[in-house]
Amino acid sequence: LLLEPLNLHDHPGYFLDNSDLAFTVVRTIRSPYLKVLFDIYHMQRAEGHILETISRYSEEIGYFHIADVPGRYEPGTGELHYPNILQAIQRLGYTGTIGFECRPQSSETLALTRIKTLIEQITG
Fold it and tell me: For the whole model, what pTM was predicted?
């Protein structure tokens, strides 16, 4: 089971609106079957400090969603430096799935090319 905190800019009134609360719930329940779905787009909009948060809570993260800010477009179109973020995730020993939950800024082909280039930068 994954808990996903969302930002209040896109989801006004949503209860689970920050990572600290989500991680507190996971640490309180202490079940190996409960983790946080860490949506980098949402958490950048809600609170920033992506690398610090990922580092602090790496053991409680069960899945990552990736999109850039602003616009929820593919990585490389906004303010986040995804090579650094993905390298940090890799250094922390995360071996799970990373989902690209984004929409193309201009075309699907260009978005897929940007994603492929990003993956190649990280994997060599």
Answer: 0.94
